[in-house]
Design goal:
The complex is a heterotrimer of chains A (212), B (333) and C (658).
Chain A (H helix, E strand, L loop, with lengths): L27 H31 L9 H4 L2 H26 L3 H31 L8 H34 L3 H33 L1
Helix pairs in contact in A: 1-5, 1-6, 3-4, 3-6, 4-5, 5-6
Chain B lengths: L7 H4 L1 H6 L15 H34 L18 H28 L13 E8 L2 E6 L4 E4 L1 E5 L4 E7 L4 E4 L7 E3 L5 E5 L5 E7 L11 E7 L1 H14 L5 H8 L7 E3 L38 H5 L6 H9 L12
Helix pairs in contact in B: 3-4
Chain C lengths: L13 H23 L3 H9 L4 H30 L9 H35 L8 H20 L27 H29 L12 H33 L12 H35 L6 H15 L14 H13 L1 H15 L8 H24 L1 H7 L3 H31 L5 H27 L16 H31 L38 H8 L13 E3 L5 H17 L3 H19 L6 E3 L1 H15 L8
Antiparallel strand pairs in C: 1-2
Helix pairs in contact in C: 3-4, 3-5, 3-16, 4-5, 4-6, 4-8, 4-14, 5-6, 5-18, 6-7, 6-18, 7-8, 7-9, 8-9, 8-12, 8-14, 9-11, 12-14, 12-15, 14-15, 15-16, 18-19
Classes of the chains: A mainly alpha (212), B alpha+beta (333), C mainly alpha (658).
């Protein structure tokens, strides 16, 4: 800590690397990071559960404003769903390629995942703009407040995921496939699948239920 | 390191606690109606158990701390290795369970009882009084008698009163401790409370749920009168009290402190704040403080947005439901 | 976007003007002092950028002490105002602000930092770890808490205090009834601190699951680590609810949405539910670590192992589960219906069962022991009767029907102070007197400590005991005044005098810190209390790498048995290996500053500026992602030198208890 300590920069991750495990689980710090991320996802589940509860309480309080029937456009939503579900699948392939130590395959599939994700975010933004033009804003009614905040939170998560994954791709390009970059990619994968699951819930409980 | 006097003040807490159930000057312990009496019965029942627990634990605590204190003469005493005792642990798990059961049964029983007309009064026809809380006053409407009072309420003695509680704005709590427990008043919600006064007299009622600057003064009086006196009072009010107009009523809802008021009609004719789709009355500008002024938002006026699209079926329904909710013009006086 | 500069500072009140001047002078004073002593570099390298869990813990504790002071002043102002009928010291608005900040500061910025601070210092030591799982995240957690606390605390001089109560019930807390920005401070500052706390929870779950010393199974873990573990789980499960609730509040107040408003179909009852869905577990988040500290203190000073360890673990897990299932008892009077109220009455009363088990286990830990009345132990002893009163009145409040008469009265206020002060504040004091030598290498003065103890405990009982009776006589909480006819006057005065005594007690604590720092004996044992757990197996103050060699654990009370069997205490020099330690980083500090700035702009509803500032957070995150500094290794020679230093000093030092 203090000046007397001779500090030696440590380049490798850790001394005890267990090479019999998949790349991302090889060091103790990696295992801790992955467990920590699972805990974070647990907290995220609570966060989204709270937002879903809020939506379900307010979902019929239109206050004279538009109702789901008038608003939702199922075609666009279906395309969004397909984009995100496909991206979850390509993300799975990317992790599979990583386990095969195929850096090129990993990068290709990861970039495809991100492009699909970008497509999803773009579609969602244009959906929101369309709603606002219809006079359905966050300020219109309690139903719309909860709708926009629930979907906006998910959309923001996806956008953050895209930015984050881009940084990891740069790191893979710079440093190659190391336990550290593998761990980061693996965690991105967990995050991406989680967002996909959340979307399935949104699709079912917001869009389908709203249209039935 | 040990001195005897370290413990004495701890033990001195005991008598203070023992006194707790005995003071009879406290309003909760002097019920003036069957509802408050019912609750007091439950409180007294729980106090017996609590006192028992306090005596046992304080006694055990005092005994153990005294007996096993470090003294110069037990310097070489090496406490035994003792990891627990299944038997003892089962005992002190079981006893609290029994106590909780003993408390649960009368609690649940009383909770259900309080939702109904009190026992012994089932045959008397209850009168209904609509209570509307506003900042910072209580408005009482008598739908059957067609009159309205502010900050005081007269009730006939020995008759169950069904209070229908709602609020014109903030969340508040309606409490007449001498007559019974409290319940919240909320805008666009209606809660109910049965109370009976079995003696004539004046009782203090208050708001217990904090609602801003005027909160401390939000008190009212309940006066229970004989049936004849009550009827006479209603007649007098009908004859002499002024009429309440909608405009005057909106002024009433603004954040003010008022004394007692009486009217020979009531506001239920144009708004019942307990109704899910009732009009919203807010006056944000009147709540400005010394803090930095934030943005105030207009109430949404969705009917205007929809004016062009009358062929929509679900919209017609909304129009009907929200017929009164176009309250934008009252925003920001 | 017109900025109203004339409304930026709060003006027109001599008390607030005095505070503004005092704050300005203090800030200038600190800058001058640090510059004069040439300590800027030291401050930056040793504290602001540190990732050492012990130093972070100490900074948390410092924040706790400061916030205790702030919240205490608020409390004293309230007591002074209500000491006599129709008091004139504060007006209604000022009183409302004072009790709001008192509640928020005491729970979120006093109790939480104190407990998380002690957790930070002690848990890694108790489980035989070199640091927490994510040291840099830990620093970020602290700095976010700090940033949130500072943002909240400036509210009363800049912009205006929140004034809707610490529960901030809607619609009162919404723009329809609180159009100023005061309550924005509530929404934003607590959000920032809450994010920090959530990350602490995740950090400690992983630390305790993954970093225990060899041989320390979960059921051989010291009780304080157990309670910290369960607390961390509750944090991870309940803080996201607070995050959402506050975010929705922010949307309602700053972006005009309709979650909890009167107009537009909002639902005020939903805020109440969300708030208490977090709020009730929060009570156990602060109380459980306190239970752990009492367990350690009682066991050490009775010189016996904890009675019924397994049932203790069972009961904290039970309490944690029940804590999530009782939130409705905070609003039985909302008219949810008899069925709901009955169910929540029962679940609430069930909490008494595991708590009772703990109580008896503590008593039986002392039985057949040899009880030493150190200051730390006195706090633990006073806890038993005082907390019992809090507990039984809690059961009384849990009885739904009876609660209709207690709700929102001073009876309730007395109850939760009887739970939180013995359950948290006594524990923090016990923990500080107990672990102070571990943190600083000197003890706190026992004589001053006892003065502190007696004044505080007597003052506490005098302040809050009368409130039970006042409540039963119909005195409501949060009322800034009452009439002489109400008859509340005499007991209110007793209560106010008690608060003064309590404050003097706290002053003695502060003086004790000062006195001990200057004059206390530095030549003390690393194990002054003849204690039982691993944190005492290393130097005082603890060397930065904690343990030269991680001890191997074979049983509960690991250190006690190491001493008894004289095994595992000493190690030969060739057993030593290089130690890997994390490097310092300024990023958490900078990122929290950016968070604070962004939050401040959002409070003032300067949305675009806030958004621009928030981009800084993203930049910090990106920098962190590209940061591949994996720390450094401490060479064996250096470890040898440090270890020789403190172990040599040990010889000839007497133990402090006998």
């Amino acid at each position: 800590m203090d000046g007397k300590t001779k500090k030696k920069e440590w380049k490798n991750m850790s001394t005890n690397v267990n090479t019999s495990l998949p790349l991302e689980f090889q060091t103790e710090q990696n295992r801790m990071n992955i467990l920590g991320f699972w805990m974070f996802l647990g907290a995220e589940i609570v966060l989204f559960a709270t937002l879903f509860a809020t939506y379900s309480v307010l979902s019929t309080r239109y206050a004279g404003g538009p109702t789901p029937h008038e608003l939702y456009d199922i075609k666009g939503v279906m395309i969004e769903t397909i984009l995100l579900l496909t991206s979850s699948f390509t993300c799975g392939i990317a992790i599979y390629e990583m386990h095969r130590h195929n850096k090129k395959g990993l990068l290709t599939w990861l970039i495809i995942t991100l492009l699909l994700g970008l497509g999803f975010v773009g579609m969602e933004i244009s959906e929101f703009i369309h709603y606002v033009h219809e006079g359905a804003t966050m300020q219109t009614s309690a139903f719309l407040s909860s709708f926009f905040v629930l979907l906006g939170t998910h959309g923001l998560h996806v956008s953050m995921g895209i930015g984050w994954a881009t940084m990891v791709i740069i790191q893979i390009l710079k440093r190659g496939l190391t336990p550290v970059t593998a761990r980061k990619t693996f965690i991105i994968g967990l995050y991406w699948h989680f967002l996909d699951v959340v979307w399935i819930f949104i699709f079912t409980f917001v869009y389908l239920k709203g249209l039935v | 390191m040990f001195k005897k006097n370290h413990l004495a003040p701890l033990l001195a807490l005991l008598p203070v606690l023992l006194l707790s159930g005995c003071d009879s000057n406290m309003v909760v312990f002097e019920p003036k109606g069957p509802v408050a009496r019912e609750i007091l019965g439950l409180i007294n029942w729980s106090l017996v158990f609590m006192l028992l627990i306090v005596v046992v634990v304080f006694g055990l605590f005092g005994y153990i701390v005294w007996k096993y204190r470090a003294r110069p003469d037990n310097k070489d005493y090496e406490p035994p290795e003792e990891h627990g005792s299944t038997k003892l642990e089962i005992i002190w798990t079981a006893i609290p369970i029994l106590i909780v059961i003993a408390l649960t049964i009368p609690t649940v029983n009383t909770i259900y009882k309080l939702e109904k007309v009190p026992e012994g009064y089932e045959n008397k026809k209850p009168i209904t009084i609509n209570v509307t809380s506003a900042d910072w006053k209580w408005i009482f409407s008598y739908p059957e008698q067609g009159i309205e009072t502010v900050n005081y309420v007269n009730i006939p003695v020995g008759t169950p009163v069904k209070f229908k509680l709602t609020s014109a704005g903030t969340m508040q709590s309606f409490w007449v401790p001498a007559l019974g427990g409290q319940k919240y008043t909320m805008n666009k919600m209606e809660t109910q409370l049965y109370l009976v006064a079995d003696h004539p007299g004046e009782y203090l009622g208050k708001n217990t749920n904090f609602n801003g600057k005027g909160y401390a003064d939000m008190e009212f009086t309940v006066e229970s009168k004989s049936q004849q006196a009550f009827d006479k009072w209603v007649k007098d009010v009908k004859k002499t009290a002024p009429k309440l107009t909608e405009k005057k009523y909106i002024d009433l809802l603004k954040p003010t402190h008022l004394g007692r008021l009486t009217f020979s009609n009531n506001h239920l004719a144009w708004v019942n704040h307990g109704d899910m789709n009732s009009k919203t009355y807010t006056f944000p500008e009147l709540y400005r403080n010394h803090d930095y002024p934030g943005q105030i938002f207009k109430q949404p006026d969705n009917q205007k947005n929809k004016a062009g699209k009358t062929d929509d079926k679900s919209m017609d329904m909304n129009m009907k439901m929200d017929g009164h909710s176009n309250g934008g013009e009252h925003n920001g006086h | 976007m017109g900025i109203k500069w004339d409304r930026f500072f709060i003006t027109g009140d001599p008390l607030i003007l005095g505070s503004q001047i005092a704050i300005l002078l203090t800030m200038i004073g600190i800058v001058v002092l640090v510059s004069y002593l040439k300590k800027w570099k030291w401050l930056w390298t040793e504290w602001l950028t540190t990732v050492d869990h012990k130093r972070i813990g100490i900074m948390y504790i410092l924040v706790g002490v400061l916030m205790f002071f702030r919240g205490g002043i608020d409390g004293l102002l309230m007591k002074a105002q209500t000491a006599t009928p129709d008091g004139q010291l504060l007006d209604a608005q000022h009183y409302n602000e004072v009790f709001t900040t008192h509640g928020v500061v005491m729970i979120l910025f006093m109790a939480m930092p104190f407990l998380i601070g002690i957790m930070n210092v002690i848990v890694p030591l108790q489980i035989g770890a070199r640091d927490v799982a994510f040291p840099q995240l830990n620093a970020l957690s602290f700095w976010l808490t700090f940033s949130g606390a500072m943002l909240f605390n400036i509210s009363f001089v800049i912009g205006g205090s929140p004034d809707a109560g610490w529960t901030a019930y809607f619609p009162l807390a919404g723009k329809e009834f609180s159009p100023g920005i005061g309550n924005n401070f509530y929404a934003v500052a607590i959000q920032i601190a809450g994010i920090g706390t959530l990350m602490t929870g995740i950090n400690f779950i992983v630390t305790i699951l993954k970093m225990r010393a060899k041989g320390m199974t979960l059921m051989k873990m010291p009780m304080f680590s157990w309670t910290s573990f369960v607390t961390s789980i509750i944090i991870a499960a309940s803080f996201p609810i607070l995050t959402v609730a506050l975010a929705l509040m922010t949307f309602d107040r700053i972006f005009g949405t309709h979650f909890f408003t009167l107009s537009g179909g909002g639902m005020d009852m939903m805020w109440v539910n969300l708030f208490w869905l977090w709020g009730h577990p929060e009570v156990y988040i602060v109380v459980l670590p306190a239970f752990g500290m009492f367990s350690e203190v009682i066991s050490t000073f009775s010189r016996k192992t904890l009675f019924g360890y397994k049932s203790m673990v069972g009961s904290i897990v039970g309490i944690a589960i029940l804590s999530m299932l009782v939130w409705v008892h905070h609003f039985f009077t909302m008219g949810a219906g008899p069925g709901v109220n009955s169910i929540f009455s029962i679940t609430t009363m069930m909490i008494a069962i595991p708590t009772g088990v703990k109580m008896f286990n503590w008593l039986f830990t002392m039985r057949k022991g040899r009880i030493q009345f150190t200051t730390a132990m006195l706090w633990a002893l006073a806890f038993v009767p005082c907390f019992l009163i809090g507990g039984i009145t809690g059961v009384m409040l849990a009885m739904g029907a009876a609660d209709y008469q207690y709700h929102n009265t001073l009876f309730l206020v007395a109850h939760f102070h009887y739970v939180l002060i013995p359950g948290v504040v006594f524990a923090v004091f016990a923990g500080l007197y107990y672990w102070w030598p571990k943190m600083f290498g000197h003890m706190l003065n026992e004589k001053l400590g006892k003065l502190h103890f007696w004044l505080f405990v007597i003052g506490f009982n005098m302040t809050f005991m009368p409130m039970f009776f006042l409540g039963l006589n119909g005195a409501v909480r949060r009322a800034y005044t009452y009439s002489a006819e109400s008859g509340f006057g005499p007991l209110m005065l007793v209560s106010a005098i008690g608060a003064g005594i309590l404050a003097i007690g706290f002053a003695f604590f502060c003086y004790n810190i000062y006195w001990s720092a200057r004059y206390a004996d530095r030549n003390i044992s690393s194990d002054p209390w003849d204690a039982r757990t691993l944190e005492w197996a290393t130097a005082s103050p603890v060397q930065f790498y904690n343990f030269a060699k991680i001890p191997e654990v074979t049983s509960l009370d690991a250190f006690w048995y190491m001493k008894k069997k004289n095994k595992g205490l000493k190690f030969s020099n060739d057993e030593l290996e290089e130690i890997h330690m994390p490097s310092n980083s300024g990023l958490p500090f900078i990122m929290s500053i950016v968070f604070g700035i962004s939050g401040f702009l959002l409070v003032f509803e300067w949305k675009i500026a806030a958004l621009v500032a928030a981009l800084g957070i993203l930049i910090c995150l990106a920098i962190r992602s590209f940061d591949y500094n994996d720390g450094y290794h401490v060479p064996v020679d250096e470890i040898k030198e440090i270890e020789y230093g403190w172990q040599n000093k040990e010889k000839g030092v007497e133990k402090h208890v006998n």
